[in-house]
Amino acid sequence: MTTLVLKCMAKPLPESVEHDVQNGVGIWTATDAVGLFTDQEALKQAETHYEEVASDPAMSATIIQINDAEQLGSGVRDSLDHISDQWSELADSVDVDRLAYVADGLMAMTVKAKIDADVETESFDSVEKAVEWCTDA
Prior knowledge:
The chain is α/β, with parallel strands linked by helices. It is built from six helices and five strands; from the N terminus they run H-E-E-H-H-E-H-E-H-E-H.
């Protein structure tokens, strides 16, 4: 119940991101990767929401799903730099045990490789597999 209360109290998400909870695992989906990574205000808003909700002690794992990542084109380098700097700090600040990335192709593995945090991290091609791994901890 605490997670639901925090979810309601958390700052709203931008239109390019959706949030869900499955089996106690927080899932943030970038439904429009290009829109998210090219709009700094939206990106900050999504990161703030993640930090507020994932900091709940009841949440031991989180999943970040990036849809349409291949459409980032030449912007992928800047996006990966941001992920390396900011998302590594976020992963450490929320104190979860496991963090999974879901994306098509090599993007999930690339994002995973960019994270330098004290959290067990893995990449997947489906949310279902990621939830299973997160709940097996």
